[in-house]
Protein: Bacteriophytochrome cph2
Amino acid sequence: MNEFDNLSVSDEGLYDWLCQMARQIDLAVAIINPNKGYTIEFVNQIFTQTTGYREDDVLGSTLSLLQGPLTDMLNENSIQESIENGLTFKTSSFHYRKDGYAFWNEVRHLPMFNQQGILQYCVIIMKDVTDSMNIESLIELEREVYFSLETGHPLENVLRNICKSVEITFGKKCHCSIVLVDENDRMINIYGEMWKDLKELDEKVLLMDMKDNRKINKPLILKDLEQSIYHEAYRPIIDKYRIVSMWSQPILNSEEKTIGLFTMYFEQRAEPKTIEIKFMNRIAPIVTLALKYFDQKSAIHRLAFCDVASGLNNYERFKIILNDFTANQSMGHLYIIEPGEYQNIIDLYDRQGGDEVLRQLANRIQNIPSFADSIIARYTHSAIIVATRLSLREMKIPPIVAEQFLSEPYYIDGKEVYLTLKIGTSSFSSRINYIEAVRQADIALSSALKVTGTVIKNFNMSLIESVEQEMNVLAHFARGLKNSEFFPMLQPKVNLMTGEIESFEALARWNSTDLGVVSPTLFIPVAENTGNIYKVDLEIFKKVLLWQKQRHDAGLKLYQVSINISPSHFYNPAFVESSIALIESYKVDPKFIKFEITESVELENVIRAKKIIDELQQLGIETSIDDFGVGYSSLSYLQELPFKEIKIDKSFVDNLANPRMNAVIKTIIQLSDNLNMVSVAEGIETEEQHLELKRLGCQVGQGYYYYKPMLIEQINELLNQQLKTSFSK
Structure:
């Protein structure tokens, strides 16, 4: 509590007593006489020390003597009103010393009343609180810096705000700038209202300040820029902003290495006081903390929103941006893109090779003008996802655009790599949120992955229906195996010369208790994808063997039946041994079994395939190559693998009337003759096809022109009918 608080003194000797008390306290005191126009009648020595005014300068004046260019006049008016109304108050005001030095002045008013309650004197107690106010301002500035960075404000905005805050707080007409440099002392950027003009200056001059600062390890103070060695270099700044003085302070990082320069440019001659040097020394660390915190936030952001391996945005970042798109009524297209050769790249070049391919692919997409503003992110380990806000009509990817991604090779470890792309697309809008749009593009990609070559699949509802069908089939597949719902339908293979049935092909069918008849085009891919296709193979194999055993036991003629064998089953190490054991368990002669192997069945492993086929042949089991001509290396296979039969694919037969295709089929038939193989044409549906194939020398035909696939019971009836017909003849 101050000595003047709750003072009650008689009128006599009040003034003398107030003066005596003012001389004894260590605060600046001024005594104002209300009866003399609220002028100052007395000041103590500390008042003159604080303000720089002599006693003669002050007496007879008012407190307005302390006002200056940046003084808050509203606050000053409030002070004067409180004094005139005899009100106690305490406030802080921006005042000026006689030499023009500004300081924060804590002003307290204690009114002195006589015994009649009439205001006799006003005691003004003052204290220079510049240091504490500066500290308070810096604490608030630091808090604002952290808040701005935490809420995602750009670093440049934060640094500009630091400059602006210092300009307001410092109390002199000044302009601030922050210059940042890299590890080689090259300028990165300039922040502050003068940044454009400062950038026009010679960089060497700007950074020379920094080098001079290093030498003396303290702020560089130029009280008169005109008289310094820099005056010509700074001439544009001096003239435009009327700069007189310049102070600069190095910005250091935690390793005490200079990373920038904080500079103040004054419009009047300014020589810093000790308290101002302290203030500058506190500003530079705030900039350092801002930079460090920004780097930490950026590192956290990279971990949270960047795929470190490829350098692309990760899917979390993509979702946030895409959600903003749809929330802002934007519309556009989504693309999920996966290189068809991704797994091969991983096998050859490790995961870094896969990362590099996706990075190069993203760069190529970004360089296409219509995709320049797109968002690209890593979606899965093998795919990227792209979103653009251009109109849907503009964003349809024609094949020619996709070719721009593929026209040049990709490079991994200096080696050329050519790709095919699988692309699934969908649209997004305010009506289709990003979650649904991504799901739709994913469904389209799944469809694209099932097709060879570069494929673009646009989402449509039929794809969902297809997926739902597949999932439904998958859900009932295991029960179908358990309940033995899979069965063979036999399609006769006819001798084209005699018209007689020579053999049959067993075609897998499924009559589900829950789903009814399920198409092979649905259940076979599901069986293959789940690794259960060999179980279907075995189910068909067993039922064919059972039929042959029944005919054998009944003394009826046996026919050779071709069984389709899946790749996983064919290459199973126990395939040959288990097959012959199964045949023997039904007591069927192996010559009545033929295994059909699809040409696409990874026959590039020729050595292993030849060993399996040779073993089967030694056991009396023949093999056939199915869908011949569909693959890429058919002729090379035929030279190495001892097949007994070549099946010409239906797609060839459908185009038999085309002269070029006719010539191809003729060549295949001649080739089979030269290799002592039987030629079988699949999918014969017309008499014209039958006659032309017969003319070309094809030996066996199969198709609806002769017989459709039939149940075993129907086959028995057919064979019995043919037997009766032959007897009647």
Observations:
- The chain has a mean pLDDT of 87.
- Residues 274-305 form the longest helix (32 residues).
